[in-house]
Amino acid sequence: MDLENEEKKPREISEIVAIVEALIFVADEPITVKNLAEVLGEDREFVQSAVEHLRDEYDERDGGLQIRALAGGWQISTKTQYHEEVRAFLKTRPNAKLSLAALETLSVIAYKQPVTVPEILEIRGVQSASAIKTLLDKRLIVAKGRKETVGRPMMYGTSKDFLLQFGLKDLSELPSIEDFEDLLGQ
Fold first, then answer.
1. Cβ pair 127, 105 in contact under 8 A
2. How do residues 13-50 score in pLDDT, each as one tens digit?
3. Which CATH architecture has domain 100-184?
């Protein structure tokens, strides 16, 4: 039998959805629609609709798991309302905490990226070298090149690990500055 000349039989959407679910489940990190389409040998739009169908199935089921758009890809995760029970079962503590200086520095970088150390100093009013080292060590930020100015300082921005750690699909999901002003009653 000549497999090369045999015409490829189109797959049913239910089969694509099942395969997409399996691939999202086994992926170590969020998997993109592009990767799914390449593995399946299917059109991106078709695979995107299969992912959305799967996400809707999980939402309608009202179970403990969800399909989430995260850091540019898709991932199966527990629903946030069950995190404490899952954490208790796994006997884990929340991820290592960041110092206030590191959180402030991370906030400046997240909202102003790409940003240099002198620009962070101008905003925070204090040196941030140790906070930047901590954030680099935790892989929450990455170097984004050098600024074309005197001294060519290094520019920093958030990493994919930042999106994963904070459960963000992309940076547009960060709260707006106006939201913070509303909280402060300004």
1. no
2. 889 999 999 999 999 899 999 999 999 999 999 999 99
3. Orthogonal Bundle (1.10)
Q: For residues 41 and 35, what is the distance between their CA atoms, to the nearest angstrom?
A: 10
Query: Rounded CA gap, 176 and 148, in Å?
Result: 28
Token match 């929450």: residue?
A: 140
pLDDT digits (tens, 9 = 90+) for 108-157: 999 999 999 999 989 888 888 889 999 999 999 999 999 898 888 999 99
> For residue 122, which amino acid is it?
E
Give CA–CA dist 143/136, Å, rounded.
9
Residues of the chain with CATH 1.10.10.10: 13-90, 100-184
CA distance 170 to 69: 9
What does pTM read for this prediction? 0.63
| 13-90 has CATH 1.10.287.600 classification | no
**Do 163 and 75 contact (CB within 8 A), yes or no?**
no
Distance between CA atoms of residues 59 and 185, nearest Å = 35
Classify each residue of 120-151 as buried b or exposed e, where b means 16 or more C-beta atoms within 10 Å of its C-beta: beebeeeebeebbebbeebebbbebeebeeee
